[in-house]
Amino acid sequence: MLDKKNIIQQEEKAVLVGLVHKDQTEPQVKEYLEELAFLAETAGAQAVKRFMQKLAHPDSRTFVGKGKLEQIQEYIQGKDINLVIFDDELSGSQIQNIEKILGVKTIDRSDLILDIFARRAKTAQAKTQVELAQYQYLLPRLKGMWKHLERLGGGIGTRGPGETEIETDRRIVKDKIALLRRKLAEIDKIAGVQRKDRGEFIRVALVGYTNVGKSTIMNLISKREVFAENKLFATLDTTTSKVVFENTPFLLSDTVGFIRKLPHHLVESFKSTLDEVREADILLHVVDVSHPQYEDQLGVVNSTLQELKAHDKPVITIFNKMDQYEKNTFDPWLEEEVKVEILNELKERWENELQGNCVFISATERRNLDTLRTTILEKVRDMYKIRYPYKTAFFY
Ligand SMILES: Nc1nc2c(ncn2[C@@H]2O[C@H](COP(=O)(O)OP(=O)(O)OP(=O)(O)O)[C@@H](O)[C@H]2O)c(=O)[nH]1
Ligand SMILES: [Mg+2]
C-alpha cells in the first residue's frame, strides 16, 4: 500500500510556486508564499526560491503556464533542489505533468499541511483524524501517485501499474476510509461521554489562527504546561483545564489553530476535536496583532467558525503580542505622545467594531493580564446567570 506519511525529509530544499488569480493582488500572494515558507520550515524543509505568475485561471494541465514551468526547470537544473511546493491544491494529473517536466517531487499546500499534522498527531483521535484526511485526499489522486512513485523508483515494477492495479488500490483506500470512519466514531462516542461527565460548568474555548499564542495564554491562565513554540500547528489535541477566578470555576480549552486554505478533508475529520469549540459557551478569539496580515487571519477564523456553526457565541477578542506590535510600529525617534496616540487609535477602532468585547495584551511579557482576567470573569458570570441561574449564588 502507498505510504503518504512524512513526504518531506529533513533538510530538504524547496522551491515555492504561487499563482496570482484574477481576484488577488501580488502583495497578497507574496504574503501567502511567506506563510507557505513557514509551513515548509515547520515540516523541516527550507524554501530557497519563490516563483509567482499572474494568470486569470490556472492551467488545467500544469497549473502554471508552460513558460513559467520552463523557468522553474531552468532554475532547478544543476542545483540541489528536492521539492517543489504549490500554494494551491493540484489534481493528480497536474502533479503527474509537472513532475514529468521538472523531474522533482511536487506537492501542494494541502499535502504539506497534512504532512505536518501527521507528524504532530499524538493521541489516537488525532492520528485517526489525520489518517482519514490523508486517505481522502489520496483517493482522487491515486493514478498520479503511482506514476510519482514509479519515477522516484519507489519500489514499484518498471512497467508501471495497469488500470486493474489502480482499481484494486482504489478499493483498498475506500475500505481503509470506511474503517477509519468507524474507528473515529467509536473514539468520538467515548470523548462525547467524557465531555458530558464534566458537570455544570461554563465552558470557554481559546480559538484563533495558528501561532497566535493560544497555548501560551492557556498556560498563563490555567498554570498548566501546554506545548507552545514558534512553529505552525504546535497544538493538535484539545486540552481542557478547570480554572477558578475569584471563586468562579469554569472549564478552559486550548484548540487546534486555523489557517487559510485548510484542506477541506482535514476540517471534516477534525470536526470532533472542534466539538469543544462548537459546544463552548464563550469563545476567546486570540489574534496576533503584530502580524502584518492579522486582519485577514481574523477573517479566516471567523469564516471557519461559521463553517463549524459556532459563530453566534459570545466572543472576547484577545489582541496578543502587543510587545511585538510596538516593536514593529514604533520608530525609535517617535515621541511618547505619538506612540500613545497610535495605540489609542488601534484600541478605539477595535473597541468600536467589537462593541468593547476585546483586550490588548502581551502574553510573554505578561502585560494587561489583570484586565484579561476581569473581562473573562465578567462574561463567565453573566453566562452562569443565563445557563444555571440557581447556581450563581455560590460564586459570590
Ligand atoms: N512577542 C510575543 N510572542 C508571543 C506572545 N505570545 C506568544 N508568543 C510566541 O508565539 C509563538 C506561538 O505561541 P503558541 O502559544 O504556541 O501559539 P498557538 O496559537 O498555541 O499556536 P498553534 O498551537 O501552533 O496553533 C511562541 O513562540 C510564543 O512564545 C506575545 O505576547 N509576544
Ligand atoms: Mg497551541
From TrEMBL:
> Can you give the residue ranges of the Hflx-type G domain?
202-384
Q: One Pfam family for this entry, by name?
A: GTP-bdg_N
Q: Where in the cell is it found?
A: Cytoplasm
Gene Ontology molecular function terms on file: GTP binding; GTPase activity; metal ion binding; ribosome binding
Q: Give the residue spans that cross the bilayer.
A: none
| Binding positions for Mg(2+) per the UniProt entry | S215, T235
Keywords recorded for this protein, A-Z:
Cytoplasm, GTP-binding, Magnesium, Metal-binding, Nucleotide-binding
In the UniProt record, which is one GO cellular component term? cytoplasm
Residues where GTP binds: 208-215, 233-237, 254-257, 320-323, 362-364
Magnesium in keyword set: yes
Cofactor list? Mg(2+)
- What protein family is recorded? Belongs to the TRAFAC class OBG-HflX-like GTPase superfamily. HflX GTPase family.
Protein function:
GTPase that associates with the 50S ribosomal subunit and may have a role during protein synthesis or ribosome biogenesis.
Protein known as: GTPase HflX
State the organism named in the record: Pseudobacter ginsenosidimutans
Q: Which gene encodes it?
A: hflX
